[in-house]
Every structure is written in structure tokens, then in C-alpha cells.
């Protein structure tokens, strides 16, 4: 495997950044997770735009133009001879000293691109559906650390993940500070009621997921009504169907939440239809490399 760091490719064993990098010392940086399917990078422009938006809010200058970064990401995929891949872009504040002050990182930001294969959940779970629970750790408040910033500070979500794992589950629902359903640790959540889709609005402590947006795009084309509306746990329990969306997990059905069976206890018809439409789109759309 070859890893891109600041314009050069390194073998995996030599792909290293300084322990004084503020990404390591403070989680000071931003990232994106992207997928490619059959040599097409899915929604690359959307991911790159979101990376630059995250960087803008934390006042981090990415030392490449969007076009240069897109070129570097495609080059990393080609050099690693990957057809179906997972791409991790990381931009950190760079090397500094032992102080929070980002001005101490005098050099450029550190840009890392890793391309590898991933399958987040075993294939059978996509057929059977996931069982998940609500956990005590709430999602970051937008006025504290806005969940729209995909920062290297993922401890909020990692704590929620640990709570789920400690209870024997793989994924967790995180609530917002008002007790509404926000999202999962690395995925957005949807429910289906009477053949209509409901998902929390992105202003309520939910990342505006690119897979989420893709589902909204498919729903609009297929005339499936969508409501971006606050959701309570009660509404999840009594939903006909439930599923999660994310670049890593793609679209995965949920069949049990906090011990309540969702709908029939099997992945729902609309969920399965959306999974099929999603995969059709990933085969058709994307940047060729
Ligand atoms: N919510 C959160 C908190 C996320 O981190 C999503 C929703 C889904 O967004 P996208 O744009 O991917 O549909 C995410 C995305 C990982 C990993 O390595 C996590 C994400 C993306 C890629 C990889 O666990 N999170």
C-alpha cells in the first residue's frame, strides 16, 4: 500500500507524521471518508466541498486547491490499483509545539490520503438488519463543536460507540441535547412510516451526510415523500422501517432499537428498494480515475 503525505507517496511502513503534529496532539484537523465503485469515485466533489467547509470554520488553510486535491486522491487510487476502495483524506494543522495555539504550526498543514478496502459490517447484516440501542452520550451541541465540522475530534462519537459495544451492540443512536434522535456514531438515521421517509434535520446536531443527501435525491426522483423533521425515540419504535446511511456503512436496515422490534422485524420493502437504487447510482455516477 502506498500512502500520500504532502505530495509524496510512502510505503505503509514509512507513512508517518510527526508526534508534534497538532492533529495528533489536539485532534486539530479535518477529514473525509469517501468510496469508489468500479473506478468511479462517488460524490467526490461533495466530499471535497465538505472538507474545505470544515477547514474554513476551523481556520485551516488546505495547501492545495480543490482540483489539486482531487487529482492527488485519484492518483492515490491508481497507484494502489484499487477499483472499489475507501479513501480517507486527512488534513491536520501540521507540526507545532506543545501549545494549543495554531499559529505555532508555522509550516503547512499536513495532507494525508489513504486508499484501502473496507467493509464495515458483515454482508449478512445487510440482509438481516442491525440491532441498535440508544446510548447516554449525546451528540455534540452545534454551539459547542458543530457536528457539521468533520474534525479529527471524534471522541464524542467514540464514547457512544464504546457504550454500544459495552452493551453488546455494534451501533448506537445518539440523541441531541433536547432528547430528539440526532444520528448514529458514523451514520445518519431514517425511518419509514406509511411509505414516507423521515430523517432529523441537519441543524439539530446531525451531520449533513452525503449518503443521506443521496437518499433524499433518490426519494425526490421516485416521488417518495420525505420529511426532514425532529424524531423522537417513540417514533423510531413505532416506525414501519428504519435504516442508516453513511459512506462506510452505505445503506443498512435496522430491525431492532432498544429491544423494540421495528415493523415486521425484517428489512422493509422501501429500505430494500432504496438500497437497490443507491447501488445502481454508485455504479453509474462518479469521477473516473
Ligand atoms: N454522521 C456522522 C457522525 C458521520 O461521521 C455520517 C453521519 C454519514 O455521512 P456520509 O457523508 O458519509 O454519508 C458520518 C460519516 C469511519 C467513517 O471511518 C465515518 C464516516 C464516514 C466515513 C468513515 O468510521 N462518517
**CATH fold topology of the largest domain:** D-amino Acid Aminotransferase, Chain A, domain 2
CATH architecture of the largest domain: Alpha-Beta Barrel
- Overall shape: it is globular
Q: Whole-number average pLDDT?
A: 97
Please work out how many helical segments DSSP would assign. 8
Q: Please, how many domains? A: 2
The radius of gyration is: 19 Å
Alpha-beta classification: alpha+beta
Question: How many beta-strand segments?
Answer: 16
Low-confidence stretches: none
Order of helices and strands: EEHEEHHEEHEHEEEEHEHEEEHE
Largest sheet: 9 strands, mixed
Give the termini distance in whole angstroms. 17 Å
Q: Report the portion of residues in β strands.
A: 25-35%
Compose a concise summary of this entry:
This protein is an alpha+beta fold and 289 residues long. It has helices at residues 22-26, 44-57, 66-79, 123-128, 155-166, 210-221, 233-237, 269-284, and strands spanning 2-5, 8-11, 29-37, 40-41, 85-92, 110-116, 130-134, 172-175, 181-184, 188-193, 196-199, 226-228, 241-246, 250-257, 260-261, 287-288.
Would you mind describing this structure in some detail?
- The chain is α+β, with helices and mostly antiparallel strands and 289 residues long.
- It folds into two domains: 2-116, Aminotransferase class 4, branched-chain amino acid transferase, N-terminal domain (D-amino Acid Aminotransferase, Chain A, domain 1, 2-Layer Sandwich); 123-284, Alpha-Beta Barrel (D-amino Acid Aminotransferase, Chain A, domain 2), CATH 3.20.10.10.
- It contains eight helices and 16 strands.
- It has helices at 22-26, 44-57, 66-79, 123-128, 155-166, 210-221, 233-237, 269-284; strands at 2-5, 8-11, 29-37, 40-41, 85-92, 110-116, 130-134, 172-175, 181-184, 188-193, 196-199, 226-228, 241-246, 250-257, 260-261, 287-288.
- The strands form two sheets. Strands 7, 8, 9, 10, 11, 12, 13, 14 and 15 form a nine-stranded mixed beta sheet that branches.
- 40% of the residues are buried.
- 3-[O-phosphonopyridoxyl]--amino-benzoic acid binds next to helix 6 and strand 13.
- 3-[O-phosphonopyridoxyl]--amino-benzoic acid is lined by residues 33, 157, 183, 186-188, 207, 209-212, 245-248.
